Every structure is written in C-alpha cells, then in structure tokens.
Amino acid sequence: MKLTNIIYWISTILLAAQVAFAGIIYFVSAEVANGFAHLGFPSYFREELGIAKLLASLILVLPMVPLRVKEWAYAGLAIVFVSAFIAHTSVDGAATAVAPLISLVILVVSYVFAHKRQAFVAAV
Predict the structure, then answer these.
(1) What's the 3-state SS for the chain?
(2) How many other C-beta atoms are found inside a 10 Å radius of the C-beta of residue 69?
(3) What distance lies between CA 44 and its chain's CA centroid?
(4) Which residue of 39, 44, 47, 73 shows the fewest CB atoms closer than 10 Å?
(5) CB 54 within 8 Å of CB 45
(6) How many angstroms separate the Cα of 50 from the Cα of each of 14, 58, 93?
(7) Long-range contacts of 19-23 (CB under 8 A, 24+ apart)
(8) Model's pTM, two decimal places?
(9) Are 115 and 23 in contact (CB under 8 A)?
(10) What is the chain's pLDDT, residue by residue, as a tens digit (124 residues)?
C-alpha cells in the first residue's frame, strides 16, 4: 500500500501542477494566446480551458473530493490531452504533439493508482 500511495501522489501532484500551470499560463501569456489562434481556436476557448484546468487540478489534489468527482476530472483531462494531440498533429505535425501524450501517460498512472488505493481501502 505504501508504494501505491507514493506512486499515486507523485503522479497526481505532477499532473495537477502541470495542469494548474497551464491553466494560469492560458490567461497571462500572449505567446499561448497566439498558439491557440494558430491552431484555429477562439480566445474564449483558451479562457474556458484555463478555468477548467485550474478546477481539475484542485479536484485531483484535494483529499476530501470523492473519487466519483475525481473521475470526471480525469475524463475531462483525458479528452483535453487527446484533443490537444490531434490539434497539434493536424496543424504542425506529430513532433509538436509529444507533450499532450506525456501528460496523458501521467494521467493514466494517477488514475490507475487512485483506483488501487480505493480498492485497498474498500477491502480493509
């Protein structure tokens, strides 16, 4: 159980930090705004996605949030990462789409170990 907790918390904190940082940058960086425009997205989508990422990062790290709610955050982030991969690949090629795939791998690790933790608690 100790190793499960360590892997869960490391992956979850990495994921939440990355997502929170992205959520903040979406509001303050002109370069990111230009990147969204380059991909063909309107400005309001960047702002909406920034808010969603900030909320998801909080939901993932707050221990009092039920797993059922966290699953919605995981699902939303998975959709965001897959969509980012598709958008970057279709506009600039697959070489520019590595970051969303790395984020997706970290998300999957966090999700799997969240369920392993829950299964252990339910079994006790």
Answers:
(1) CHHHHHHHHHHHHHHHHHHHHHHHHHHHCHHHHHHHHHHCCCHHHHHHHHHHHHHHHHHHHCCCCCHHHHHHHHHHHHHHHHHHHHHHHHHHCHHHHHHHHHHHHHHHHHHHHHHHHHHHHHHC
(2) 12
(3) 19
(4) 44
(5) no
(6) 17, 13, 24
(7) 19/53, 19/54, 19/56, 19/57, 19/60, 19/77, 19/103, 20/53, 20/54, 20/57, 20/58, 22/50, 22/53, 23/49, 23/50, 23/51, 23/52, 23/53, 23/54, 23/57
(8) 0.92
(9) no
(10) 899 999 999 999 999 999 999 999 999 999 999 999 999 999 999 999 999 999 999 999 999 999 999 999 999 999 999 999 999 999 999 998 999 999 999 999 999 999 999 888 777 6
Structure tokens at 96: 């520019």
Residues 58 and 3: their CA atoms lie apart, in Å, by 23
